[in-house]
Amino acid sequence: MTRKIRLGAFLPGSGQHIAAWRHPDQPADGATSFAFHAELAREAERGLFDAYFLADGLAVAFGGSTEGGNAKVAGFEPVTLFAALAPLTRNLGFIATASTTYEEPYNTARKFASLDLISDGRAGWNVVTTATEAAARNFNLDRQLPHADRYKRAAEHVEVVRKLWDSFEDDAFIRDKDSGVFYHPERVHHADHAGEHFKVKGPLNVSRSPQGHPVIVQAGQSDDGRGLAAATAEVIFTAHQRLDTAQEFYRDIKARARGLGRDPGHILIMPGVSPFVGRSEAEAREKYDRLTSLILEEDGIALIKGLTGGSLDLTGHDLDGPLPELEHTEGNQSRQALIRQIADENGFTIRQLYQWVASARGHFTVVGTPVQIADTLQEWFENEGADGFNILPPWLPAGLTDFVDLVIPELQRRGLFRTEYEGRTLRQNLGLPYPVNRHAAARAALQAAE
Amino acid sequence: MTRKIRLGAFLPGSGQHIAAWRHPDQPADGATSFAFHAELAREAERGLFDAYFLADGLAVAFGGSTEGGNAKVAGFEPVTLFAALAPLTRNLGFIATASTTYEEPYNTARKFASLDLISDGRAGWNVVTTATEAAARNFNLDRQLPHADRYKRAAEHVEVVRKLWDSFEDDAFIRDKDSGVFYHPERVHHADHAGEHFKVKGPLNVSRSPQGHPVIVQAGQSDDGRGLAAATAEVIFTAHQRLDTAQEFYRDIKARARGLGRDPGHILIMPGVSPFVGRSEAEAREKYDRLTSLILEEDGIALIKGLTGGSLDLTGHDLDGPLPELEHTEGNQSRQALIRQIADENGFTIRQLYQWVASARGHFTVVGTPVQIADTLQEWFENEGADGFNILPPWLPAGLTDFVDLVIPELQRRGLFRTEYEGRTLRQNLGLPYPVNRHAAARAALQAAE
């Protein structure tokens, strides 16, 4: 099978660009409209995307001085939303973000296994540690836990969830009405986990789901984050502005995975790309400028503050001057470094910085014709920069529709993207293996040795 | 408006009777089948039920010695399941159980507000403290917290969730594209909660939902449970075998509510009823005997153990002898007392006890014609025994279909039950008031005083 580009669709109902909601085509209430999310899911499925992706923050992303300009102030809990979208779609995967710091593994395992059952095998879990002070204050803390502690807890949380997803072997259910045997007691297992952060007996009270394990997704960029991703992720969402940094990341992750005995082909690296697609370059540029013109100054400042976990507050600084030095905090370190890099490399003022970041919030913005955009994606895909991309349409639904109608056909013409879904589950469409139940594997190994 | 009977439908996909899954009409895989739950939801809506109700346990209910006979070994996380059923229905409410002991209020508030948005105002939260040792061991504990502590935490958990549901006033969103003002900052509020168990800053990152607050439901029977219910519940699910105990409960709760300054008409008391409906008495009895004959001895013993929070293990006792003394534990105290009462009043052996309990797991079993069953419901409804009922069909879907086709029309003929849905939201159908946002109320009071 020829290697194909994998595509995720990053579709908060509010649009990705900070000023999207002010665009005439974008429903201003999109973030809180279930009907609009259902429309987006159907549109992504029409485009044969692998998955609909939702981030999650566990706090209102107020920023510093928004004065009410933030369309992301309220949304949906992602798993609840995706469960409702599942019966309205047939093939689209659903990758929901959930926190290892502020949820318990038994609850995490249950809700994703339930989503996987409901969607008949289309669930994915984007594992995050949740890096904001605002979230910590919603969960009994005054300040968030140190970065390294969050990552240690995350690794153990994922381990417990995976143990719980192996509670039932694939053939645990017998359901024989005559004998009254519903399940095979020896094929149902306790997790019996006792670690530094969690003590979980099990078994899970949700049966093994169609994918065995929902797909594990991560977005860590720091050293801790890369280590966790290389050890446990099957899809990695990442943010790069240039092919060379994407390649460095790609090679590092694949090497780490190989070092841990994993098949590097089973970790798909998908940078974020925010596309402005025009039938001509001028039309694409016009779409970009249109949205830039809609950004209010205070919203630009709030955006930078929000992206850096609340640590970089530029209120009162000269917007047409350079970015001041950052101080070290427990906020999102990889985002802080990325923001600094973008400003330095482009010689941006604060205003230029937020205008650029506003379009994709740290991700790669491409502005051009379908051929130009396909050229860029192809270059990254064929040169160890990406296995696929998370597409972040700047505004909705038009930004998504442009991509589906114009870029997808160009990728298909080049043989780089599917023309129909290959499988039933997200795992099958992504070309990822079915995870053999650990207890079944152990028994098989024992029997082979006898 | 004439007072009408309210009806909830208690529809675990496995059926309520312990041996339901062995019945030829019951899909053996119903508990883990999303398609079957969708069929049940549509059937309940055809019957004009107020709500679909799901219990939840946070552990596998193994019981003592099931040997694989328990069809409730695995199911769905209720909110995830209901979110998926919401777009497939229009009027049916969804009351999902969630634990105040093993979830965080920020997460609870989010998932129910999301469900309320997705269902356009049809969500309810059945507040439970989760009374099993097995659940405690899935959440980092060796033993569960004492009963009184769980209830104190529950009261505070509900308080925090309600504060969070008032984060956004009804008119908080402006979404004015011209000015760039998305929301009115003074109409968005922090919870600023700091109590004995929780410290939660807020605001919630989900907007105010169609019902303002999803409907609060409880099922506490102990003194602590009744106190919490009288203070905070809008619907109370309860278990009674006789009208006189139902009346004692009904009058006690209404008096407690009145004492707390609440309108007793805004607390609906709904005992559970498990109906075997036949066109003749003989046909109804035949349906009952059919299911009783399918109970295995070890499953009967496991049932009693499970219902009493694991504290009453009858393994090794003479099944045709009397119930031994119960020892005091931190398990479900009200259930222990109820089991004892059923055995004593009927002079049941252990076998007779589990056969009786197996049909409705502690709830009231009625066996008869539509007229007989309607007579009983009417008697309770008109004599301070009930404001409505939770119907627990013994097996599915036939037990539900019998009730919809035979009993509902009899209740409608008597003018006791709706012939179409009155409102759009669960709250409207139940005749419960819309909860005014506390911040809007405070401002209105201030303005009135000026």
TrEMBL record, chains A, B:
Transmembrane segments: none annotated. Residues 20-387 form the Luciferase-like domain. NCBIfam families: FMN_nitrolo. Belongs to the NtaA/SnaA/DszA monooxygenase family. Coiled coil: none annotated. Gene3D superfamilies: Luciferase-like domain. This is Nitrilotriacetate monooxygenase subunit A. It comes from the Bacteria. The keyword S-adenosyl-L-methionine does not apply. Keywords: Flavoprotein, FMN, Monooxygenase, Oxidoreductase. InterPro entries: Diverse_substr_monoxygenases (IPR051260), Luciferase-like_dom (IPR011251), Luciferase-like_sf (IPR036661), NTA_MOA (IPR016215). It comes from Paracoccus acridae. GO terms for molecular function: monooxygenase activity.
